[in-house]
Amino acid sequence: MNDFYIALGANLPSGGSLPSDTLKAAIDDLSQQNMAVQAISAFYRTPCFPAGTGPDYINAAAHLKSDMPSKDILAQLHEIEAKHGRERVERWGMRTLDLDLIACGDSVLPDLATYETWRKLSPDRQRQAAPSELVLPHPRLQDRAFVLVPLRDIAAQWRHPVLGLTVTEMCNSLAPEALAEIVMLES
């Protein structure tokens, strides 16, 4: 069984459901697949990324276990997104549901060189380019408070297989103002 870490987010309603309700439904959907949900973070209100491009997001993280390969997990995540009205129209656009496969244990996919190419991509190229294959861990997870803060709830000691840092250490390296923008929602 592999450990998978998923970032969940939504900032548009889906079929009349609020983004927080869509995340709850997606978590239920995850548990009905060939995936065992181990932990779910708190839900957080986070600024839209990139800044100013839409309403705030509701973000969370999930820890799953499965014996499926990473590419099959990703396909399942895309099916759940589609079920909740996700349309892939614009890179980094608003969405009814976003399920990002952030990491699979200590795997680096497809290989270290490809991972490093995507990690070092300039911000301008990041807006325009998307990898044609799954790259794990997510090349910019270490830069994103909206991913790291929820992930810290459930996997604080998970260690990035390339950077060698734990989730807590990556969070601690972010700017205080970036962390302050991530607000936990009441249960």
UniProtKB/TrEMBL annotation:
Pathway: Cofactor biosynthesis; tetrahydrofolate biosynthesis; 2-amino-4-hydroxy-6-hydroxymethyl-7,8-dihydropteridine diphosphate from 7,8-dihydroneopterin triphosphate: step 4/4. It is an enzyme of class 2 (transferase). SUPFAM superfamilies: 6-hydroxymethyl-7,8-dihydropterin pyrophosphokinase, HPPK (SSF55083). Gene3D superfamilies: 7,8-Dihydro-6-hydroxymethylpterin-pyrophosphokinase HPPK. Belongs to the HPPK family. Catalyzes the transfer of pyrophosphate from adenosine triphosphate (ATP) to 6-hydroxymethyl-7,8-dihydropterin, an enzymatic step in folate biosynthesis pathway. PANTHER family: 2-AMINO-4-HYDROXY-6-HYDROXYMETHYLDIHYDROPTERIDINE PYROPHOSPHOKINASE (PTHR43071:SF1). This is 2-amino-4-hydroxy-6-hydroxymethyldihydropteridine pyrophosphokinase. The gene is FolK.
